[in-house]
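FIELD: query
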Amino acid sequence: MRIRKYDFDYSRRSFIEKVAKGTGAGVLAPLWPTIANSADDISKAYPDELLSIELYTKGKIKPGDLLTPNNVDVVKDLLDPIAYKQVKEQGRKIWIKEATKDVTSLFNNTYLDITLKNKGRGKFGPDGNVWTDGEVGKHWVGGLPFPDITEGAQCMANLCGNWGRHDYSQYAIPSYSLDPGGDDAYFHEFVWTELQVTGRNDGTVYNNFSDKLRYNTVFFTAPNDTKGSSFLSVWYYDQRKFPDLYGYFPAFKRVRQFPTNQRFEPLVPGITLFLSDAWGAGDPMLTWGDFKIVERKPFLGAVSGSHNWYGAGKSPNWEPPRNGGPKGKTFWDTTFELIPEAIVWDSAPTGYPRSPVGRRREWMDARNGMMISQVTYDRRGGIWKQFEPGFGQFKNEKGAYKDKKGYPDWSWLYCTIHDIQTNRMTLLRHSEKVKSGYASRYDDGGEDVYNKYMTSSAINRLGL
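FIELD: result
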């Protein structure tokens, strides 16, 4: 019997072949040449059933529908195992929208432009680090070093290189941590800052700190019992080196340096977020290993700002409603869409012999190299935690938050960190500002953010 080339299972066979051969994204045509040539529309790279949830499910799920226990089995293969359990057993409801075909809405404008400009120049050197044209000592010049991913290590490199995809990012974050009964047990507000040193969008090396990759400071502003607690991570460009990690706690009134393995512990009591969780790549690339692409497949995820950003007057301080769980507030109200090609890849913390994490599995959007979901497993192989982010441009039917060039800016919009073993949940949201007055922003505005946030003396001042 002759199999038609473009029958309904053609994509599945194509993905299996790509994993076996180690080739890049796209089914009907290579993805990144399609992006470069058509500027925005990816329709030529994928068949219709990968761009339409209605076609993929043969009419059983369509845009505007709500995933519930009654219909979630139709798309079980499109969800991570914890997301499926959340809908099937814990009352989570997820809205479904049409698929995004305009790839420009999956990036901030500057980062997409520099990725296209530098495409093909990112290469691993003999030391395992990413260098421009593979020349050791020549720092990466910016954008995704491996936009057309063919191996697991490239997934990690894309995430590690520039978390927030801006030269400076500052996020104002309210956080709710829920107990197993579905009650808000802890409420925190904190500010997360990222100063990119190398691999910047502007092509420079910040302050000539050529041995550094980034500075990352997290400081808590509420409630009073954690207010002033702060953490500073100094990342080296050499991804074989562990970051220097410093912390300040008001009760001790001093800055102390922490051991590396404390990256796998809650930042403060009650929260389920670890430093290791950040961006699906919270530790240096070469302190993890055993990278392997397991499969390529369509997947459901929150990648569109038009439905998941609650700014522009849609909700005060960008706060989404909640649903599900015992008290109806365990999950953010979110909207997923069909992602035509997700890269499923595994890794293990090879540089951390005492890590409580045995391995992790991540689902990555092949179109922008960003993590869609992450599930970690403990050292015994038991499923442990889900880290689920939502991304998108700051735009919706009511307006947009724009960058200096007038384009809608892009970032993460929400995160959930669900410890499935204890059934504890932490909900993070990207807000306009926190009550202390710190606001979210995506450039330094000419301010000396290094001396304000990124030194030991800075986190000491922030704690006073």
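FIELD: remark
The CA atoms of residues 40 and 102 lie 5 Å apart.
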